[in-house]
Design brief:
five-stranded mixed beta sheet; D-tyrosyl-trna(Tyr) Deacylase, Chain: A; Beta-lactamase; 15% strand; single chain; 12 helices
C-alpha cells in the first residue's frame, strides 16, 4: 500500500510539472517579445571600494601645526589672483588660544556677514542662551488694544510648515488668545494700535542702499515685524523659512504686521474698527495676551545657518537695550563692541551695523579668529554661553550657506567636507570665511580669511579660493 501511495504521489508531481511548463510556454507566446529581453538580476563582479573612515583619527606622532608649516601650506593658495590685492589671514590654536599664523591679521578689513559671529557672541554673553523675546497685546486708551513689538526677529504671521525649526511665535496664536480675552469681557469689537517704539533711530544703516530691500536681503529694521519682512508673490507674509526668497521685502514691516494681526482677529470673530494705527503702549499697561520667541541659542543658530540679516540687526539692538545704549544702529554697534571688550576682544572692531551688510564695517582677521576661538573653547567664566555659535555654524558641503547650491562657497575638497564649520560673508568685492578646522594631529584650529579688494566680477573665483584655503587647513600637518 505504501509503495502504491508513493508511486501515485510521484506521478501526480510529474504531471503537475508538465502542466506548469506547458502553461508557461502558452503564456509566454502571448506576451510581447520585448519581455524576452528581461534578465534575472545578478550581483556585479566589480571590485568593492575600500571603506574609508568618516573622520580619520589623528596621524600617529603627527606634530602640531606651527607658523612655518602653516605658511608653507597656505602661502601659495593665499597668492591667488582671484583674492585681489588684499588678503588677511589669522589661524589660532583653539586649545591654547594662541595665534599660530598671521598674514596681515591685524589689518582691518570689511567683514561682510562674518560679522554676525561678533553679534552672536555679544548677544549670547549679554543676554544668555535661554533669553526669549516677547510680543504683547496690551490695553490702550479707552476700548483700544495695542500690539507691542518686543524685537522678536523670528516672529511669524500665520503657521509656518511643520518642518521649520525652531518653531517661531506667531501672530495667529496671539490673535487667538486676544480674541478669547475679548469674548471673556463680552466684546467682539475693538480698535487696534501698534507700537514699534522699542527700537529707535533710522531703519536703514549707514552704507546700506535701497537695493538691499528690493533684492530681498533685509527689511527696514523694526521692533515689530513678521517673517523678517519676507513676502509671497501676492504681497502677504511668507510664513516659511525660505532664505532663497529674493523678492522685495516689506518696506513698512510694523504696519504690515499689524494688518496681519487684524486679519487674524477677524478670522477669530473679532471686528477691528478702522485701520490699525501707530500708538504708544502706556507705561505699565495691562497685558491682554503674549507670545514668546524660541530661546536665543536657537535663534543664533538660525541666524548663522542662513546668514539672516534681520535677526542680526535685532540681536544687536537687544544687546544695546541690555547694556543701556540706544536701540539703534549706532547704539547696537557700540553695545556689541563694548560687550566684546568684556570678553577680551579689546581691539580690531569698528562697526556701524549688526549684520555686516554695510561696507563701512571694519574688523581684523585676528579679532574674528579670537571670537571663534572663544566660542570653541571649553566653558570659562563669562564665556560659558558661547558654544551655540559653533553648533550653529554651517558645515562644509552639508548645511546652511556651505551646503551645495545654497551660496557662493562650494569649492571644498574632500578633507573639508563634514569637518570644516564656518561663517561665510560676501559683498560685491568682499569675501570672508571664518570658522574651525581639525589638523592632522588632532588640534582644533580657528581661522579667519578676509579678502576685501576682489576684482570686479570675480566674487565666485574668490570664494572658491577661500574654500581651498579652508581645505588646506583641514587635515594638514602644517608642522
Amino acid at each position: 500500500m505504501a509503495n502504491r501511495l508513493r508511486v501515485t504521489v510521484i506521478a501526480a508531481l510529474a504531471l503537475l510539472n508538465v502542466v506548469t511548463l506547458g502553461a508557461g510556454v502558452a503564456v509566454a507566446s502571448l506576451l510581447p517579445a520585448r519581455l524576452a529581453l528581461w534578465q534575472v538580476a545578478r550581483v556585479a563582479q566589480a571590485p568593492l571600494a575600500r571603506q574609508q573612515p568618516a573622520l580619520a583619527p589623528p596621524a600617529a606622532h603627527a606634530a602640531p601645526p606651527d607658523g612655518r608649516g602653516l605658511a608653507a601650506a597656505l602661502g601659495k593658495l593665499a597668492g591667488s589672483r582671484a583674492l585681489g590685492k588684499r588678503l588677511g589671514i589669522a589661524v589660532t590654536d583653539i586649545g591654547s588660544g594662541s595665534v599660530l599664523y598671521s598674514r596681515d591679521g591685524g589689518s582691518p578689513a570689511v567683514p561682510a556677514s562674518s560679522q554676525k559671529l561678533v553679534t552672536a557672541a555679544a548677544a549670547l554673553a549679554a543676554l544668555g542662551p535661554s533669553a526669549r523675546f516677547t510680543t504683547r497685546v496690551v490695553r490702550g486708551q479707552g476700548d483700544s488694544l495695542i500690539l507691542a513689538g518686543g524685537g522678536d526677529p523670528t516672529l511669524a504671521a500665520g503657521h509656518p510648515p511643520a518642518s521649520d525649526y525652531p518653531r517661531p511665535a506667531t501672530l495667529a496664536s496671539l490673535a487667538k488668545a486676544t480674541a478669547h480675552w475679548l469674548r471673556s469681557h463680552h466684546r467682539t469689537t475693538v480698535r487696534l494700535g501698534y507700537d514699534g517704539s522699542r527700537f529707535t533711530g533710522p531703519a536703514i544703516a549707514p552704507g546700506w542702499t535701497g537695493s538691499y530691500i528690493t533684492t530681498g536681503n533685509v527689511t527696514p529694521i523694526a521692533a515689530l515685524e513678521v517673517d523678517q519682512g519676507r513676502l509671497t508673490a501676492s504681497g502677504k507674509p511668507q510664513d516659511a523659512d525660505i532664505p532663497g526668497n529674493f523678492r522685495a521685502r516689506s518696506t513698512a514691516p510694523a504696519a504690515d504686521a499689524a494688518r496681519s494681526f487684524s486679519a487674524f482677529l477677524a478670522a477669530d470673530g473679532i471686528t477691528v474698527t478702522g485701520t490699525p494705527a501707530p500708538a504708544r503702549a502706556p507705561a505699565k499697561a495691562a497685558r491682554v495676551a503674549a507670545v514668546r520667541s524660541p530661546e536665543l541659542a536657537a535663534i543664533v543658530a538660525w541666524m548663522l545657518r542662513e546668514s539672516n540679516n534681520v535677526i542680526a540687526e535685532d540681536l544687536a539692538r537687544q544687546v544695546a537695550l541690555r547694556l543701556h545704549y540706544p536701540a539703534s544702529f549706532s547704539g547696537g554697534a557700540a553695545a556689541v563692541t563694548a560687550q566684546l571688550r568684556r570678553l577680551g576682544v579689546t581691539s580690531g572692531l569698528d562697526l556701524v551695523d549688526g549684520s555686516g551688510l554695510s561696507p563701512r564695517n571694519r574688523i581684523t582677521p585676528e579679532a574674528l579668529a579670537r571670537v571663534i576661538t572663544m566660542a570653541a573653547q571649553p566653558a570659562r567664566p563669562g564665556r560659558s554661553g558661547l558654544r551655540p555659535i559653533i553648533a550653529g555654524l554651517p558645515v562644509a558641503g552639508f548645511s546652511g550657506t556651505l551646503a551645495p547650491g545654497q551660496g557662493l562657497f562650494g569649492g571644498f575638497g574632500p578633507a573639508a567636507l563634514g569637518t570644516v564649520r564656518a561663517k561665510t560673508g560676501n559683498l560685491t568685492t568682499v569675501a570672508s570665511l571664518t570658522g574651525i578646522a581639525v589638523a592632522r594631529s588632532g588640534e582644533l584650529l580657528g581661522f579667519a580669511f578676509m579678502a576685501d579688494k576682489i576684482p570686479s566680477g570675480g566674487l565666485g573665483g574668490a570664494t572658491t579660493a577661500l574654500d581651498r584655503l579652508a581645505t588646506a587647513l583641514a587635515g594638514c600637518g602644517c608642522s
